[in-house]
Amino acid sequence: MSTKIRLGILGGGGDSLIGVLHRVASSMYDSYQLVGGVFNPDLEQNTGFAEKIGIPTDRVYKDFDTLIAEELKLPETERMQVVSILTPNFLHFPMAKKLLENGFNVICEKPMTTTYEEAGILRDTLDKSKTIFAVTYTYTGYPMIRQMKEMIASGAIGTVQKIDVQYYQGWINPIIHDKAKRSTTWRLDPEKSGISCCIGDIGTHAFDMIEYVTGMEVKEILADLNYVYSDNKMDVDGTVLLRFSEFVKGLIRTSQIATGEENNFTVSIYGNKGGLKWEQENPNYLYHLTEDEPLKVLKPGHAYNSALSLDGSKLPPGHPEGIFDSMGNIYKGVAKAIRKEKYHPGEFPTINDGVRGMNFIEKVVESHKQGNTWIKV
To answer: Nearest-5° angle of CA 331, CA 333, CA 339?
Structure first.
């Protein structure tokens, strides 16, 4: 009998990039077996997709409610153990809640829900279910981000005093400037995406990353958002000032209208003894800056890296590790938790990260609407 964790997936069918990412990531360490799911809302497309990726169609269900009902009929030794939610944002909460209530472990795309209130309900539901819940803030899985986290914790750059995170994309330009397109895409529909587009989609990555690598919590924010057109209800660009304490400050710069940018996510953390810088488009290099020595460049796979970083490195030095590997490390951590094995708390983002992310999104929008004022997080 296979000892692999039985995985179900909701969404991610067709040519979905996020679907490929999750399927490949789950297969990396031979810990999961994809047994079924609901990949598309149309049953014929759903079944056709399952056949295309080579999984049996007997557990490819017509809808989410049918999946729950039919899986619960199976013996515990056969039913799905964990379900990944890759659907549009507005479906995350009802799906995750019902899965938790029925004893399933959950891996959920971000943003975790569409409101902070929903996020709190999910956390309460998880407390009762005693299952495992992970939010896929994917970039926390990169080996050199994990190295950054451990170096900051060990005091390698001293006391953190300045944080600067940039996340620039340009993909929404062809949509935002076309009235017909921007009124039909779910990303710009508050009913499906929540109250924020840019901050909810990529700003929340930046926020989670800052708290992940520094180990600190943001206390106050001040936000200025750009909607580009008066009839557009969703932000597509924004800057957020951060306060961690009286003398520790930072900022998040995000945009989906940064023309020509692809996925320019840059994390810079400065302490009183040095700084660390990482760029998602060149993720195998962690730059260590100091005032009294030449620039140091750290790379994955070397013995000088931390145990957490090395555990997330699958290849010898000199072999690039990318976003599939990063997501794979998150799935690996979740597998350890499901199997009740020992794992590092930094191996996967938890529901608490998802809750803080939703709170951040709402506070950013509130700060902007109040005329760019400071708001407690």
So the answer is: 100
What residues does CATH 3.40.50.720 cover in the chain?
A: 5-138
Does 142-317+351-369 carry CATH code 3.30.360.10? yes
Q: What would the DSSP string read from start to end of 193-232? A: H-S-SHIIIIIHHHHHHHHHHH-----EEEEEEE-SSTT-
* Residue pair 332/29 in contact by the 8 Å Cβ criterion: yes
**Location of each CATH 3.30.360.10 domain in the chain:** 142-317+351-369
Task: Show the tokens assigned to 9.
Answer: 């997936």
Contacts of residue 215, Cβ cutoff 8 Å, sequence gap at least 6: 149, 152, 153
Verify cis geometry, omega within 30 degrees of 0, for the bond prior to 41.
no
| Mean pLDDT split into 10-residue runs, the chain, 377 residues | 89 89 94 96 92 93 97 96 96 98 97 95 97 96 97 98 98 93 88 91 96 98 97 96 97 98 97 97 96 95 94 80 91 97 96 97 97 96
What dotted CATH number matches 5-138?
A: 3.40.50.720
CB 172 within 8 Å of CB 256: yes
Q: Of 71, 75, 74, 78, whose CA–CA distance to 10 is shortest?
A: 71
- Contact partners, residue 373, CB within 8 Å, separation at least 6: 222, 367
Q: How far apart are CA 35 and CA 53, in angstroms?
A: 11
